[in-house]
């Protein structure tokens, strides 16, 4: 069995920026063990798999440690592959996922806009456990499915050096840290060592929580965000009540073939 494999740098218009994701189109679903094995072999933060079902596509995401409920950058990467490599002609792609139906529109140029759920977080007490994990005390702490720690300055976010073992012991899949910015509306970083991702380069799904917070705090619905990881990535966001728009470009890095052999033989 042979499968096509694409690797796309999402939330970047240049190679080696943004967040790399693998994308594997399928005709039918493979076993979960095989999907997990492919994701482990790819060894990227996410591998996206999709299957066409009439007018929409079923979409799933796997980290090297297992399946997740939502992933932004790999959704952007999957849409980029459909639009730019597989000849998808309509303006909007509909993905059926574990987080409901997601919509990706082709915007101007190479920018794609994703319609995702809004996940506003609730205030949470800043505990000593969280402070030790982060190596600094945030001004505010929130929780939805992940923790979100709010700091005073962008410099604090850039210089933060958390204890990954302690971060992994906290509730939730990841720790989001964020602060206001002079150049952007806000900046962020995301740490998810419990699912094999010490620091995620650019995290679309984290903005399901970041956008409603900053839209309320800044009293504006249109937001420019930057994730200040080593690779970095800019996200154009819009708050729409119970939904958020998260937009950015993507660029293809490689196209290849996965060879799945049930039996191997070696002749000498």
TrEMBL record:
Gene3D superfamilies: Diaminopimelate Epimerase, Chain A, domain 1. GO terms for molecular function: isomerase activity. InterPro entries: Phenazine_PhzF-like (IPR003719). Keywords: Isomerase. One of its GO terms (cellular component) is cytoplasm. The active site is at 46. SUPFAM superfamilies: Diaminopimelate epimerase-like. NCBIfam families: PhzF_family. Belongs to the PhzF family. PANTHER family: PHENAZINE BIOSYNTHESIS PROTEIN, PHENAZINE BIOSYNTHESIS-LIKE DOMAIN-CONTAINING PROTEIN. This is Phenazine biosynthesis protein PhzF family. It comes from Paucidesulfovibrio gracilis DSM 16080.
